[in-house]
C-alpha cells in the first residue's frame, strides 16, 4: 500500500489564496513545483501527475468550495481506481498549533467540512490525512469565531511556523508514496 493521490484542501479564488483554510493547497502547490496543475472539468479540480520517489502520483486541488471537496476526490479516485487507503488529504487543523504537522489514517472529521464531504464521497473514513496546524482562535488568544478565523491570513509569526511545518511535511511525502507510513510518522512527529 502506498499513496497514489495527494489532495490539498482549500477554497478556490484569489480572495482565499492566503487564508489558513488553504494550507492544503499550499502543500500541493509546493509538491507540484514545475508540474502545472490543469483544470480538469470532469473532476471539477486542478489536477496533474508528478513523479515522487519513482512513482507516479496524482495531485489534486478541488475547485469546489471546501464543504464540497468530496465531489472532486471521489470522481478522480473512482476514475483511476484509487482505493481510499491510497489517498492522502492535506488540510488545515485547528487542534494543532501553527508549526505542528501530523499524519494519521482514518478517524472522525473533527468538524472539518472538507473531510466530512470526502468521507461521504469515498464511503469510508479510512484514508490518510496530513494535518497542518493553524491553531485555534481561543488558544491563540483571539476572540474571532472559527469560521472567520480560518478564512483570514495567518499572522506573520504563525505563517513562519506553518511554512516550517510545510517544509517538514514535504520531506516525508516520498516515504508516504513508498508506503513507509510508520517511518514518515516518526520523522514528522518527532523531528527525527
Automatic annotation (TrEMBL):
<feature type="binding site">
    <location>
        <position position="113"/>
    </location>
    <ligand>
        <name>tRNA</name>
    </ligand>
</feature>
<dbReference type="Pfam" id="PF01195">
    <property type="entry name" value="Pept_tRNA_hydro"/>
</dbReference>
<comment type="similarity">
    <text>Belongs to the PTH family.</text>
</comment>
<keyword id="KW-0820">tRNA-binding</keyword>
<protein>
    <recommendedName>
        <fullName>Peptidyl-tRNA hydrolase</fullName>
        <ecNumber>3.1.1.29</ecNumber>
    </recommendedName>
</protein>
<comment type="subunit">
    <text>Monomer.</text>
</comment>
<dbReference type="GO" id="GO:0004045">
    <property type="term" value="F:peptidyl-tRNA hydrolase activity"/>
</dbReference>
<keyword id="KW-0378">Hydrolase</keyword>
<feature type="binding site">
    <location>
        <position position="67"/>
    </location>
    <ligand>
        <name>tRNA</name>
    </ligand>
</feature>
<feature type="site" description="Discriminates between blocked and unblocked aminoacyl-tRNA">
    <location>
        <position position="11"/>
    </location>
</feature>
<keyword id="KW-0963">Cytoplasm</keyword>
<feature type="active site" description="Proton acceptor">
    <location>
        <position position="21"/>
    </location>
</feature>
<dbReference type="InterPro" id="IPR036416">
    <property type="entry name" value="Pept_tRNA_hydro_sf"/>
</dbReference>
<dbReference type="InterPro" id="IPR001328">
    <property type="entry name" value="Pept_tRNA_hydro"/>
</dbReference>
<feature type="site" description="Stabilizes the basic form of H active site to accept a proton">
    <location>
        <position position="92"/>
    </location>
</feature>
<keyword id="KW-0694">RNA-binding</keyword>
<feature type="binding site">
    <location>
        <position position="65"/>
    </location>
    <ligand>
        <name>tRNA</name>
    </ligand>
</feature>
<comment type="function">
    <text>Catalyzes the release of premature peptidyl moieties from peptidyl-tRNA molecules trapped in stalled 50S ribosomal subunits, and thus maintains levels of free tRNAs and 50S ribosomes.</text>
</comment>
<feature type="binding site">
    <location>
        <position position="16"/>
    </location>
    <ligand>
        <name>tRNA</name>
    </ligand>
</feature>
<dbReference type="InterPro" id="IPR018171">
    <property type="entry name" value="Pept_tRNA_hydro_CS"/>
</dbReference>
<dbReference type="GO" id="GO:0005737">
    <property type="term" value="C:cytoplasm"/>
</dbReference>
<dbReference type="GO" id="GO:0000049">
    <property type="term" value="F:tRNA binding"/>
</dbReference>
<comment type="function">
    <text>Hydrolyzes ribosome-free peptidyl-tRNAs (with 1 or more amino acids incorporated), which drop off the ribosome during protein synthesis, or as a result of ribosome stalling.</text>
</comment>
<dbReference type="GO" id="GO:0006515">
    <property type="term" value="P:protein quality control for misfolded or incompletely synthesized proteins"/>
</dbReference>
<dbReference type="GO" id="GO:0072344">
    <property type="term" value="P:rescue of stalled ribosome"/>
</dbReference>
Amino acid at each position: 500500500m502506498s499513496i497514489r493521490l495527494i489532495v490539498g484542501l482549500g477554497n478556490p479564488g484569489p480572495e482565499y489564496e492566503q487564508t489558513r483554510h488553504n494550507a492544503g493547497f499550499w502543500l500541493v502547490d509546493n509538491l507540484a513545483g514545475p508540474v502545472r496543475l490543469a483544470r480538469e472539468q470532469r473532476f471539477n479540480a486542478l489536477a496533474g501527475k508528478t513523479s515522487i520517489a519513482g512513482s507516479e502520483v496524482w495531485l489534486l486541488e478541488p475547485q469546489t468550495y471546501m464543504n464540497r471537496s468530496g465531489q472532486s476526490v471521489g470522481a478522480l479516485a473512482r476514475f483511476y481506481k484509487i482505493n481510499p487507503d491510497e489517498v492522502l488529504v492535506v488540510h488545515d487543523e485547528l487542534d494543532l498549533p501553527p508549526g505542528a504537522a501530523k499524519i494519521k489514517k482514518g478517524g472522525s472529521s473533527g468538524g472539518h467540512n472538507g473531510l466530512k464531504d470526502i468521507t461521504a464521497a469515498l464511503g469510508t473514513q479510512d484514508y490518510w490525512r496530513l494535518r497542518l496546524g493553524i491553531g485555534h482562535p481561543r488558544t491563540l488568544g483571539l476572540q474571532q469565531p472559527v469560521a472567520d478565523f480560518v478564512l483570514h491570513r495567518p499572522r506573520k509569526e504563525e505563517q513562519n511556523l506553518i511554512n516550517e511545518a510545510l517544509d517538514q511535511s514535504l520531506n516525508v511525502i516520498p516515504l508516504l508514496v513508498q508506503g513507509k507510513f510508520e517511518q514518515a510518522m516518526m520523522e514528522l512527529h518527532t523531528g527525527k
